[in-house]
Amino acid sequence: MSSILGHILIIIGMFFIIFGSISILLFKDLYARLLACAHIDTLGMIFIVLGIIFISPLSTLTIKKVLILVFTLCIDPVSTYAIGRSAYIRGERPTNKKHTNNKGEKP
Questions:
Q1: I want to staple 6 with a disulfide (CB 3.0 to 4.6 A). Which of 24, 32, 51, 89 is the partner?
Q2: How far is Cα 73 from Cα 15, in angstroms, rounded to an integer?
Q3: pLDDT, tens only, 69-102
Q4: For the range 55-61, what are the long-range contacts, defined as Cβ-Cβ under 8 Å and sequence gap of 24 or more?
Q5: How many CB atoms lie within 10 A of CB 67?
Q6: pLDDT tens per residue, range 3-59
Q7: Reduced to 3 states, what is the DSSP secondary structure of residue 39?
Q8: Residue 55 and residue 65: Cα distance in Å, rounded?
Q9: How far apart are the C-alpha atoms of 47 and 10, rounded to whole Å?
Q10: Does the CA dihedral 8-79-24-99 come out positive or negative?
Q11: Helix pair 30-55, 61-90: axis angle to 10 deg
């Protein structure tokens, strides 16, 4: 039973990572791409590691898998912040698009 749950979690994680990769192509702004990919890829990694833990529970490698999960949860936000900050220092500014209605007028 835990093997089936593990495979389901891995498949869910793969879908999150695939959708995160597609979001790179869909978003135009660097910061939108960075935000979407960071959150979605982290969530995909969580599901994949949890799936691997469920497939082979209570082994000596379980501690290593949990450490990989904790390391990923600690490093992903820091790396996203570093990339965003370096882009801002380099001069890349977020796009500030005003919302308009269908006629092109401001609401």
A1: 51
A2: 19
A3: 899 889 988 998 999 899 899 988 877 665 555 5
A4: 55/2, 55/3, 55/6, 55/7, 55/10, 57/2
A5: 10
A6: 899 999 999 999 999 988 888 888 888 888 888 888 888 899 999 999 998 888 787
A7: helix
A8: 12
A9: 6
A10: positive
A11: 180
Q: Which two tokens stand for residue 36?
A: 């979407």
Q: What letter represents residue 37's amino acid?
A: C
Cα 56 → chain centroid:
25
Q: Which residues lie below 8 Å from residue 12, measured CB to CB, with a gap of 6+? A: 47, 51
Map tokens 């000596």 to a residue: 60
Tokens matching residue 61: 């490698």
